[in-house]
Structures are given as C-alpha cells and as structure tokens.
Amino acid sequence: MRTIRMEDMNWPDIKEAIAAGYTTAVVGIGSTEQHGLHLPTKTDTVIGDAIAFWVAEKLGKALQAVTIRVGCSEHHLAFPGTISLKSATLKAVIHDYVDSLVRHGFRRIILLPSHGGNFTTVKEAAGELQEKYSELKITGFTDLQTFVDKFIELSGEYSVTPEEAGAHAGESETSLMLALDEALVRKDRYAPGYLGPLGEKEIKVILEKGMPTLSKNGILGDPAKASAEKGMVYLDKISDFVVTQIQKL
Question: What is the rounded CA–CA span in Å between residue 160 and residue 48?
Fold first, then answer.
C-alpha cells in the first residue's frame, strides 16, 4: 500500500486493506488551543496525528483514521484562538467515529489522546464502547500522568530538567513541533512559562481553574533547549512506548 493514512486513501483501497487483514484502526484525538507565544493552536493535533501514524505503522496491519482536531480545552479559553468541545460532545464524536469504523469491518480500534484535557473523556468513551462492542477490542492509552512522565523522562536523557521539559509548549512539545513542522515555530518568541512542580495536584488545578492560574503566557516549561533532532527521537520513543502500553492492554 502507498499509505496507511485513511484520509489519503480511496474507498476501494481501504476496503481491500481491511480484507487483507488491516482490521486495526488508530485514532488520534488532538485539540485546537493556545500553545504559548511560539507554537500554533494545532500543536496537539499535529503531534497526535504523528504519534497515531507511527503507532499504526509499528503495530502492523493497522490503518490510521483521520485525527479528531478539536477536544476539551475549556481550561485554555482565556487565550484567543482556542476552540473547545464539551466532554459530552467529544464523547459523542468518538462514539460516532467508532460506530463508523466498526461498520466497515475494523475489529480493533485504538484511541490515542494527545491533549491532557481529553484523557478522562477518552477513557470513559473507550469503556462505554468496549461494553457496546464486547466482541471487539476498543482500547486507548488514557493515563495522562504516565504520558507526561514519559516525555519528562525522554527530555531528561538530554539533560533537560522536568521543569524545562514541561507539559505544554515547553522543551518537549517544542522539539516535536520543530521535527514535524519547523516553519510553524516562532523561535523569536521563546520564553519560559511556569517552571514549578507538575504533578497530579497541579494538573487538577489547571483543568479545574484554567491555565492562567499557573501560567500567564500559556506555557508550562521552557522551549529554549528544544531541537528538531531531539523531537524525532521523542516521536520514535514515545510511539514505541505507546505500542508497548497498548499491547499490555
């Protein structure tokens, strides 16, 4: 096949792929929201799309369904350009996605959120859908803290502190965007944001009270040490990690 991206395929090729055993569909679930002074609002979608593609490739016999581009970003609405769905709306979209994929013959569907605000909703939707389609496998990597911790670990291999790596427009996300679409990164606007601890308590505060509670410029971390070279390594290793987690599920 020329591609495993379903949005780039035509329906006969998709039908043929499913018949040939490509019965796993991987769905990235991103967001459209502010990412500090230097990254575009589609950052989570670009990164999520790339992770979903790499995961599908590494799983084998899998196709990548079109990435969901808008998620639950209520906590970023203080910043212009952010578009947010209610949790119930995103859940309904996920249900409709999966219903469509099941109808076409997919037997395993993997949901991969790449934005923190989506994880709880995706977890709930996956559970509901697994109950609905008990004969199929509906799974997702929905452990937000583990996801954040893995990126911090990867950045640490390059002597980037957890505070610099951050979890939103810091070194790790900026490196990924430099690797995926460097033209969209405003290097002249690099600035540190919140550089304190980022555990379950802080994430809860952000989700409940909004990003400005911790960061006035919308950044968690510091992009100064970001590079495209590191970004490619992060993408390779995070997709390996996600594949391992999915196989455990």
Answer: 22
Dist. CA 116–CA 135, nearest whole Å? 29
Distance CA 24, CA 64 (A): 8
Q: What is the pLDDT of residues 198-248, one digit of tens each?
A: 888 888 899 899 999 999 999 999 999 999 999 999 999 999 999 999 998
- Domain of residue 54: give its range: 6-248
Q: Does residue 199 form part of some domain?
A: yes
Q: What is the tens place of the pLDDT at every residue in 112-161?
A: 999 999 999 999 999 999 999 999 999 999 998 899 899 999 999 999 99
Q: The whole model's pTM is what? A: 0.96
Is residue 1 in a domain?
no
Domain count, the chain: 1
Task: Please determine, for residue 249, whether its predicted confidence score (pLDDT) is greater than 90.
Answer: no
Q: Is residue 189 part of a domain?
A: yes
Indicate the residue type of 198. Answer: L
Helices (H), the chain: 11-19, 43-59, 87-104, 119-132, 144-156, 162-165, 171-181, 200-209, 228-248
Using DSSP bridges, classify how beta strands 137-140 and 108-113 pair: parallel, antiparallel or unpaired: parallel
Contact partners, residue 50, CB within 8 Å, separation at least 6: 176, 180, 235
Of 77, 1, 63, which Cα lies nearest the Cα of 32? Answer: 77
Residues forming a β-bridge with 16: none
The CATH number linked to 86 is 3.40.50.10310
